[in-house]
Amino acid sequence: MKPITILAIESSCDDTSAAVLQDGWLLSNVVAGQDVHKAYGGVVPELASRAHQQNIVPVVDYALQQAGIQKNQLSAIAFTSGPGLIGSLFVGATFAKAMALALNIPLIAVNHMRAHVLAHFIDEPKPQFPFLCLTVSGGHTQIVKVNNYLDMEVVGETTDDAAGEAFDKTAKLLGLPYPGGPLIDQYAKLGNPDAYVFPEGKTREPFGFSFSGLKTSVLYFLQKNTQNNPQFIGEHLYDICASVQKTIVSTLLKRLKKAARHYGITHVAIAGGVSANSELRRELEVLGKQMKWHTYIPQFQYCTDNAGMIAMAAWYQYLEADFTNQYAVPKARFPIAEG
Q1: What does the alpha-carbon distance between residue 112 and residue 11 come to, in Å, rounded to a whole number?
Q2: Do residue 25 and residue 145 come from a single domain?
Q3: Which residue, among 139, 112, 119, has the nearest Cα to 12 in the 3D structure?
Q4: Which range of residues forms the domain containing residue 26?
Q5: Would you tell me which of 100, 124, 192, 195 could form a disulfide with 77, CB atoms 3.0–4.6 Å apart?
Q6: How far apart are CA 17 and CA 306, in angstroms?
Q7: How many structural domains compose the chain?
Q8: Among 23-32, 94-103, 320-329, where is mean pLDDT lowest?
Q9: Residue pair 11/300 in contact by the 8 Å Cβ criterion
Q10: What is the pLDDT of residues 199-242, one digit of tens each?
């Protein structure tokens, strides 16, 4: 019987990625970043889409080479249909559609946030259904109740800024280069997390998040303390980073704990770019032991945007013949439940 081989393409933001999966096993996962955005302190959508156009052919070619797969062996092609930057999405979607048409094979549109959750099924250990997944990135912060591979429900999400955005905006206020989130994590290890107290955002939603107030609080805090001491940030950088990080991580895990108790779920996971944060990973394990949870933390390579997770999601959609129209338009944002 011919194996099912899927080529997956991810281009939702500023990473161009391609992966090959065969019969549920990941054979390759190639990612090309974009350094051009560092000069601007954030992702510039137009520059991102242009870089995707330059990167996508060599990235796909290398992924196929690494997997030892020829194009005529492919059973389907998957692509990220959203959420993401619309220009970036179009590059990946257009390439995938053209290739699928040329090879006369099915096309699979994958929800980016669903793929982050399903990254947990690339390697062992794999979560048991139902489980809760705290999905945190630069653009999203959600608690997802995962009933099965294709049945997911968002039970809590941010009402304003995402956790990753809070990290990056704080880093910008501190004068740190982009991307600032990983630098805050790095510097926090050298600081005192109890040096300063910042407010945790509150919402009316029981499992909701709010991080815009934290950003404003940090801004006012820095303005007040640098007014009479311009060197304040440099002198206390590590403590500021540690205190801000503690606030963000504490907020995330408090809501996750509340949701787990409400639904009576003991299998708990994290996913998304912010799941690479060392304190979040460490504190989840500590909380998991206290609550007697089964906790699942993805490998670093599957935390940030990558086509491996797109391929994994596409595998389960392929088994259900969940294919898309080659002329479908990618969407910038849509609920995870729509797939």
Answers
A1: 10
A2: no
A3: 112
A4: 5-117+303-338
A5: 100
A6: 6
A7: 2
A8: 320-329
A9: no
A10: 998 888 999 999 999 999 999 999 999 999 999 999 999 999 99
